[in-house]
Amino acid sequence: MNNSMISSSVSMQALQQKMDIIAHNIANSDTLGFKRKDSNFHDVFTTTLRQPEPFRQPGRLTPLGFNMGWGAKVGQIQIDMTQGSLQMTGNMLDVAIEGDALFEIRLTDDEIARNENGQTVAWTKQGSFQFTIQPNDPDYAYLTTSAGQFVLDTNDEPVRIPKNHRVQIDSVGNIMAYDEVNRDAPPEYRGQLKVVHVLRPQLLEQIGDKQFVLKDGVDNANGQVLTPLNEIQGDLPNVAIRQGFVEKSNVDLATEMTDLMMVQRAFQLNSRALVSADSMWNITNNLRG
Amino acid sequence: MLRGLYSAASGMITQQRKHDTITNNIANLNTPGFKGVQTVSRSFPEMLMSIVREQSDMPEPRQVGWLHFGVLPEENIPVFQQGDLQETRNPFDFALVSDLQVPGVMFDAGGKAITEDGQRIYQPQAFFTVLTADGEPRYTRNGKFTIGQDGRLITGEGYTVAGADGQPILLVDPDDGNRPLNIKVSADGQVLDAETDQPLANLLITRVEFPQLLVREGQGLYRVGDGVDAGVRPIDPLDPNDRIAIKQGYYERSNIDPTQSVVDMMSALRAYEANQKVVQTYDRSLEKAVNEVGRV
User: Fold this and answer.
1) Which chain B residues contact residue A273 at CB under 8 A?
2) Quick one: pLDDT at residue B253?
3) Which pTM does this prediction carry?
4) Domain coordinates in residue numbering, chain B
5) Which of A4, A245, B203, B206 would you label with A141, given CA atoms 20 to 30 Å apart?
6) Closest Cα partner for A40 from A75, A12, A68?
7) Where are the domains of chain A?
């Protein structure tokens, strides 16, 4: 009875966790740039009851020892980096990436102070940028995310545009600033957006719902997790920058609802097993009297 | 005491173990690569019963017959039926479809064959091979792999997936050290760079002749016990009996059937209850013997 009850309750906890992940995905089915999470189960360790030698009888198939399992737990939780669909907004500061790449942003001073591992940069796919004026540099407008983090260029410097200019970003991230006041002036080249290609999404961790950082202890010194696009030799992966578009969430409601139904039914089945174990215990308690 | 009391108690214990095993099967309904387990019970060895002191002039007591004195849960046998494949389109999910043959033997749908002289043969099974931290091989059907930091192919718990020569699989181009942007794996386990079709490594698929002799370790891993010969050898792609297929972008679901499991669970519960009634009946008989026989 105890084994049954423990197996069932452990598995129900695991199913509850999976339900939480699915609910989080569904809640963010409209969040721009959201990447869904995926998880799967593993069986928990197995104990083997020792059986002495007289148990080795003719017709026995398995080695000596009685195997008992103890349920299932949630194994790896992975970020699914599938491309979401692009939606045209017409806003010149909305920039979407088509392909397996991320923008590099510098965290705000508050966030850096709160960070325990000293990371100062993060990556994001959400390209809804805006202009922010820094008090110590009033002639320039800095390109930032909606949370105020600076967007970096290929020289690891924040992208800044002179005031009263509009920006045009081409498909590899080159930024040209056009003077709104003096329309005949030639466009000014303001650098190239730093876009990194993701080689190992499994080693990234999602914080908040918008940005990715390296998992603790992961080292990107040789560019084995993320590589800046302009430093890749050989064939370039298929990445394009699209100004005026945003990338929608990659959550597919049909898949999530199907998973949710499966998890609910598995939960129900496990609770039936728990009730059955409880009946057994009841039978034992009523053995006498 | 009355012998039947202990028989009934042993019956209850056996049904409880059966119930535990079925519950664990149900718990792992969604675990990739899980193989269900069946409990097999066995009667206690028979004992020859004799009548005690029937007549004082008989040299030996007269024998009545053979009697078993209970049942015990003997072993938990894994059932290696192929699980269904589910598509995930994740390039690091692999499903192994295994249909290994033994010359001259036809296996039924449950993977069992009985020869003419009554011998049971179970179908050999194929497994992915992974290495522990000490380099010991373990076998699994859970093909949900991922990449470690140094480019090795690893399982979800961090065990290294073994390549054809028993070495870790490094997803690095041997000529220029570049990491491939994407890999594709052929049906016989060859790992290629998806862009250049350059071969990088081969997955080591192991054929186990006697899969029932494997020891189940949990976390989806099986190992060969010390001193046991389970007939382990790598798959030979040229051997027509080694029929396997590896599907990239799919994983193998557990082979548990929920309906069958619930029916078995109900049957274990009712058998438990029946044994309880037997114990209660013995109890009432003893109560009569103690309290009512010889009452004045």
Assistant:
1) 22-23, 26-27, 265
2) 94
3) 0.86
4) 3-78+257-291, 85-252
5) A245
6) A75
7) 2-80+252-284, 101-238
